[in-house]
Amino acid sequence: MEREADWQEQRRQAIAGHAAALEAGRAAEAREAAALLDDFVRRAAERGLPAHTLQARTFDGRATYRTHVRGWYLKSNRSVAVGEDGEYYVLTVPASLRARFTGAELTPSMPRLIVGAGGGDGETVPLRQLLDQRLEAGVSWP
């Protein structure tokens, strides 16, 4: 019985250690991605790349709402963006009657170095690549 309790405690400690390591890695990734976003905002301003009022789409894709955030779309499907504040936004929101009139509220998401990682749709793109493509496209792309 005591042996089993020792084993369970060791297992709990191993799981906690693994979770802590994952979280530390995720935090380091977010810091690196945030630095890329800040650099993008600076470079976009230097190039005179205009920011736009971002729109968010409902999870089912049936409705689009304006938001109170200005920034730049990073993907042509307008699913992710970087705000003028340097924050990363995933532009999907729940359907809401209120949002139709007042606009959708966006909350910044923790940025990842690989956009779409863990999303399940199979489309993953390095964040740096999206940012560079957006800068290269300039004002010709909304």
Key words describing this protein structure:
142 residues, two-stranded antiparallel sheet
Helix-strand string: HEEEEEHEEH
Sheet bearing the most strands, described?
A: 5 strands, mixed
The number of helices is 3
The dominant shape is extended
Summarize the helices and strands and which ones pair or pack.
Elements: H1 2-47, E1 52-58, E2 64-73, E3 80-83, E4 88-90, E5 92-93, H2 97-102, E6 114-115, E7 125-126, H3 127-137
Parallel strand pairs: 1-5
Antiparallel strand pairs: 1-2, 2-3, 3-4, 6-7
Helix pairs in contact: 1-3
Task: Describe this structure as you would to a colleague.
With 142 residues, the protein is an alpha+beta fold. The chain has one domain. It is built from 3 helices and 7 strands; from the N terminus they run H-E-E-E-E-E-H-E-E-H. Helix 1 (2-47) packs parallel to helix 3. The model has no long low-confidence stretch (mean pLDDT 89).
In short:
This protein is an alpha+beta fold and 142 residues long. Helices cover 44% and strands 21% of the residues.
